[in-house]
């Protein structure tokens, strides 16, 4: 079966339905995946970029971002190599006032048992993450 690594622009055209020429193409690709004709691979980077674009450019709220992108993870025809980590990162993003990448690091650390080395104070908001901050 053919696999496609999803670029953020295809993902956004599908989610936002905002382009008269590209949205139908993106929609057809997702329909093909749901029908089992192909497999779409949602990478960590594409999801993180989608969060950033939706938040900064389109001014979409955290709750809507979390719900919308969360619904793609585990969708029929969509493979997500780090499904549990991304689901956790989106949940953290919806609950805490932190950048998505901080939530992603916290989710990765919680999943792996590794500590995080950072000077970012926002990471202190996660009780389940060991933080090295130089002190």
TrEMBL record:
Residues 4-127 form the PIN domain. Keywords: Endonuclease, Hydrolase, Magnesium, Metal-binding, Nuclease, Toxin, Toxin-antitoxin system. InterPro entries: PIN-like_dom_sf, PIN_dom, VapC_family. The keyword Hydrolase applies. Its cofactor is Mg(2+). Mg(2+) binds at residues 7, 102. Toxic component of a toxin-antitoxin (TA) system. An RNase. Belongs to the PINc/VapC protein family. This is Ribonuclease VapC. It comes from Pseudobythopirellula maris.
């Amino acid at each position: 079966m053919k696999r496609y690594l999803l670029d953020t622009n295809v993902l956004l055209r599908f989610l936002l339905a905002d382009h008269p020429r590209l949205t139908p193409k993106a929609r057809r690709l997702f329909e093909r995946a749901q029908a089992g004709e192909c497999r779409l691979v949602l990478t960590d980077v594409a999801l993180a970029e989608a969060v950033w674009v939706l938040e900064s450019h389109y001014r979409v709220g955290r709750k809507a971002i979390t719900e919308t992108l969360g619904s793609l993870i585990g969708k029929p025809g969509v493979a997500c190599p780090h499904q549990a980590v991304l689901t956790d990162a989106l949940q953290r993003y919806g609950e805490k006032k932190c950048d998505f990448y901080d939530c992603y690091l916290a989710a990765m650390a919680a999943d792996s048992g590794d500590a995080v080395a950072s000077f970012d104070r926002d990471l202190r908001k996660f009780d389940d993450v060991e933080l090295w901050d130089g002190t």
